[in-house]
Design a protein that fits this description.
225 residues; alpha/beta; Rossmann fold; Arc Repressor Mutant, subunit A; 2 domains; six-stranded parallel β-sheet; 11 helices; 13% strand; globular
Length: 225
Amino acid sequence: MDEKIRVLIVDDQALIRTGIATLLARKPGIEVVGQAGNGQEALELVAALDPDVVLMDVMMPVLDGVEATRRLAERGPRPAVIILTTFRDDEYVFRGLAAGARGYLLKDVDHRALAEAVRTVAAGGALLDPEITAQLLPHLGRLAGERPATTPVASPAQAARLALLTAREQAILAMLAQGHTNQEISAALLISVGTVKNHISNILSKLGVRDRTQAALWAQQQGLR
């Protein structure tokens, strides 16, 4: 029998945590292993419970969800974090994605879509709420319009994938496109080779590609060099 996807729910409102846990408990292949009321508790429970996926609220006491996500991303590609919030503001979306979240969903998401999102990121994928994707397209369109005429313009789907990458991941992806080795990237960015490998693993997951060669080709096709 396949192992269940282990989920940690992080929200400062106990009623919301309980509601999400109840909904997910009914879904096949998903197990809620813990709940946390703030980002600091989330960090501690991730270390203790080793979940596959964290559903992370944004505004919480002690440590907010964006900072907690950033600290988790620094540790490595697991667990995958989905920001689950009521905030639709572009600032929160960009901050959450830049921190390393693999998904951004609104709390009014359908329970079936939420379960599917958990399965998607657990399998290494990334996603945005359709409403958030539509909201980001004007920003992505302006960014595309600022590129030189010779630079390929990404499709909305490709642009949305690129938006999932943090600034550091985009820099590493550009260096992959230029043919740099892990050691060269490490020296250029003043980070360890192990950290480079973790970032590349995140990049592959977010772009939905199999290896660094595919990632480099993808970046070249988008004009990211």
